[in-house]
Write a structure and sequence with these properties.
The complex is a heterodimer of chains A (166) and B (108). Chain A has two domains: 2-126, Four Helix Bundle (Hemerythrin (Met), subunit A) (Up-down Bundle); 127-166. Chain A is built from six helices and no strands. Chain A has helices at residues 2-22, 26-46, 50-75, 87-111, 128-136, 140-160. Chain B has a domain at 34-96: Helix Hairpins, CATH 1.10.287.3510. Chain B is built from three helices and no strands. Chain B starts with 11 loop residues before the first helix and ends in a 13-residue tail after the last helix. The chains are: A mainly alpha (166), B mainly alpha (108). At the A-B interface, helix 1, helix 2, helix 3, helix 4 and helix 5 of A face helix 1, helix 2 and helix 3 of B.
């Protein structure tokens, strides 16, 4: 059952990611990205990351993608021109990418050859309780620095998107 | 990778391989697309692929730290999306284009 679920959501994620790359209209790419994020949230759940799965859906598939769709709507972005690909990239790019992926897969198999398979429920440490405890003890300083980062991001976004830029 | 009848559960290395595939697709979109918004979405795809690796390693090591890193990546991605999209809005307001090839002030 776990393997079947992994296969289904991995297939959804890969197909949506390919669709993101090949679509020319940005709104199609944005909806494909939502599909990737939803599938990844399911995979996080399989890996025992309850909190991260929920945060993925709320922050990524919710907030960030709404921002993207809003900007696409605001700018009235249409289909883009066909990208100019040089023949060298055309005939060398795809084989090199496949070779890279093959090497990565081989390396991953070599480094962790016989680890126990992923069983749903085998790892219980990903709850909000555990993450909260870790966040407010070991990772307290990075967590507080993050709040400064978000404040700067808010100010930067306001300054950049003001009416008079000059 | 053993092929044949599907096992009851997949090893963590399959998750890492999926993460590598998604990251490669993100790089592909980043290099291939000409629309600023799509390029930006490819970056988000790469961040998501890395998050999957973090959560997988967290499962393998039975520690919560991977989830914390993943959480921080999400926070940084949210801040980055807000600022990046504001920059895109400003670029569009000043140049009326979304093609990255036409935004070349810093070139040369």
């Amino acid at each position: 059952m776990d393997a079947l679920l992994f296969m289904i959501f991995a297939a959804i994620a890969v197909i949506c990611a390919i669709n993101l790359v090949v679509q020319t209209h940005p709104i199609s790419s944005a909806l494909s990205l939502v599909g990737v994020m939803g599938a990844l949230a399911a995979l996080y759940l399989l890996l025992g990351g309850e909190f991260i799965a929920a945060a993925q859906l709320v922050v990524y598939a919710g907030a960030i993608m709404v921002l993207f769709v809003f900007v696409i709507m605001l700018l009235n972005a249409g289909s883009e021109r066909k990208p100019v690909i040089k023949p060298r990239g055309k005939y060398l790019g795809a084989p090199l990418l496949l070779v890279f992926l093959g090497m990565m897969a081989y390396l991953i198999q070599r480094i962790m050859p016989a680890s126990a398979p992923v069983v749903f429920g085998a790892f219980q440490g990903g709850t909000a309780k555990e993450i909260g405890r870790s966040l407010f003890t070991v990772y307290l300083l990075p967590f507080e620095v993050t709040s400064v980062l978000i404040l700067i991001a808010i100010l930067g976004a306001i300054v950049l998107a003001r009416k008079e830029v000059d | 990778m053993p092929l044949g009848p599907l096992p009851a559960a997949v090893p963590p290395s399959w998750y890492l391989t999926l993460s590598a595939i998604l990251f490669a697709l993100g790089v592909l979109g980043f290099l291939l697309r000409r629309n600023i918004i799509t390029v930006f979405m490819s970056i988000e795809l790469m961040l998501n692929a890395v998050n999957l690796s973090f959560v997988t390693f967290s499962y393998v090591l039975k520690r919560v730290d991977g989830h914390i890193f993943s959480f921080f990546v999400m926070v940084v991605a949210a801040a980055e999306a807000a600022v990046g999209l504001a920059i895109i809005l400003t670029v569009f307001k000043n140049r009326q284009t979304l093609e990255i090839d036409e935004v070349s002030t810093l070139k040369n």
